[in-house]
Write a structure and sequence with these properties.
By secondary structure, the chain is mainly alpha-helical. The protein is built from 19 helices and no strands.
Length: about 475
């Protein structure tokens, strides 16, 4: 029942929010459902729920990590939305809150799906839930962004569907035993899966879910989409959608490694990881729009997630830990940038100097976010990136470690050049600057505290869960 409730609760919340015209009622639905969802996830930590629907829905360690990350990030975004909707009234405002809750439902479905076709359905639902949120301004640029998002995402999700079909074929070729595409049965019969069909399945799933993840060169929807979306939608996409898409790719890797195909899956994962870092580094230098800068930062961190997965060993642990860190720090940065854009009316870096004086809370959060997202100590991403780097050294991939360090240094320079200039640079004359709302500052502050805490100490229950998730991926604990 808990697994079904995790999906159905936000669906009912979306219907309830759409039924009310007043903003106050809609935000009440949003916040209430977000808090109830967090409570259900907490209950799943204390008392792991039994599988449902003949094993189609189940919650293992990896799924619980993704579910918890998405739920906590969504709760922060919901609180932020209270302040946001008091200042902004997106066209189609009733649908705005409903689509946010629909995204929570679809991401929850991805997290608890152990039937890989049902997981695909959840990923497709995230696409449909987010599209109206990208088009919130109803102008030419947002139309272009949502069109690009839908076209490229549709291609990616179609490739993932083909990969799912190929995986089913690999399972059928192994014999009639087992439930089709149910993770536990795929893992149990992994050594008997047809190797050629399994390899084809992995290639298509990597391309499909890699598109949703935003891996280069499949990332081209991200800059326009993140640039045109409201900041809270960018936070959900960079933190929540990325986590869900990584889970889809991790499931495919999980089955392939169990089938003894680790040597086949490792090179493309490493290649996509380093390629994404390289593209992000190239486009961050000289970037002039802060939201597009964060889009390329999301490409970078998608690359790090996949790189750790490909390196294996402690790299798998580093990837799962980085998934949590990435969601926290992307939420922090996008929400802080959202405050800046609402206050000044622009995301152009050249018009955003002197933020530490004009918008001290958001300006400070941006500086904190800069050092966190670039993997500086004592923040959580430093620990997860160091673990991935350690996996490269342990595996004898010294060239991978060297390239990774070089590209991370370039990325740091590109991000620091923009954000420090925004924080400390000359403040241009502005007609007026809106005061920072408490609702819109509290959430980013909580995320900043979380990402700092994870850099100092990993709580024992979380550490144990991360270890179980890494073991499921064939990895090891540091």
């Amino acid at each position: 029942m808990v697994l079904l409730a995790l999906v159905l609760l936000p669906v009912l919340g979306a219907l309830g929010a759409y039924a009310h015209r007043a903003v106050a009622y809609r935000t009440a639905w949003l916040v209430s459902v977000a808090l109830l969802h967090v409570a259900l996830v907490g209950d799943a930590w204390i008392d792991p729920p039994a599988p449902a629907l003949d094993g189609w829905l189940a919650l293992d360690a990896l799924g619980l990590v993704v579910l918890s990350t998405v739920s906590l990030l969504f709760a922060v975004v919901a609180a932020y939305a209270v302040g946001y909707l008091r200042r902004e009234n997106p066209r189609g405002g009733r649908a705005f809150v409903s689509c946010l809750l629909a995204f929570l439902a679809s991401a929850s479905l991805v997290s608890v799906s152990h039937h890989l076709a049902l997981l695909w359905v959840g990923m497709e639902a995230t696409t449909l839930a987010l599209a109206p949120l990208i088009f919130h301004r109803h102008d030419r640029r947002s139309l272009e962004a949502v069109w690009k998002y839908l076209v490229i995402s549709s291609v990616g999700i179609a490739l993932a569907l083909l990969g799912t079909f190929f995986l089913a074929t690999a399972q059928v070729s192994a014999g009639p035993e087992g439930r089709p595409l149910v993770l536990e049965d795929l893992m149990a019969g992994a050594p008997r899966l047809h190797p050629a069909w399994l390899k084809a399945a992995f290639v298509f799933l990597l391309a499909g879910y890699g598109t949703k993840l935003g891996l280069a060169p499949l990332h081209t929807w991200k800059p326009d989409t993140f640039g045109e979306s409201p900041a809270l939608v960018g936070a959900l996409m960079a933190g929540g959608l990325t986590s869900a898409a990584f889970l889809g790719l991790a499931r495919a890797t999980q089955v392939a490694v169990a089938a003894g195909q680790g040597g086949f899956v490792q090179p493309p994962l490493i290649a996509f990881g380093l390629g994404s870092l390289a593209v992000a580094a190239a486009f961050m230098i000289g970037q002039t729009d802060v939201k597009r800068l964060l889009a390329y930062s999301s490409v970078e961190h998608a690359g790090l997630l996949v790189l750790g997965l490909g390196l294996g060993g402690v790299g798998a642990y580093g990837s799962v830990l980085h998934l949590v860190n990435n969601a926290l720090v992307k939420g922090l940065l996008f929400l802080a940038v959202g405050n800046v854009v609402l206050a000044t009316g622009t995301a152009a870096a050249g018009s955003l100097g002197g933020l530490l004086k004009g918008l001290p809370a958001s300006g400070l959060l941006l500086v904190v976010g800069l050092f966190a997202v670039t993997g500086s100590p004592p923040f959580g991403p430093f620990l997860s990136e160091f673990t991935i780097l350690r996996a490269a050294f342990n595996g004898g991939h010294l060239w991978v470690a060297a390239v990774m360090l070089t590209l991370l240094a370039v990325i740091f320079i590109g991000m620091a050049a923009m954000i420090l200039e925004m924080a400390y640079g000359h403040a241009p004359k502005r007609e007026s600057v809106r005061r920072e709302s408490g609702w819109m500052v509290a959430g980013p502050v909580m995320l900043a505290c979380g990402v700092l805490a994870l850099g100092v100490v990993i709580p024992r229950p979380l550490g144990a869960l991360l270890s179980l998730a890494a073991s499921a991926l064939g990895g090891a604990t540091p």
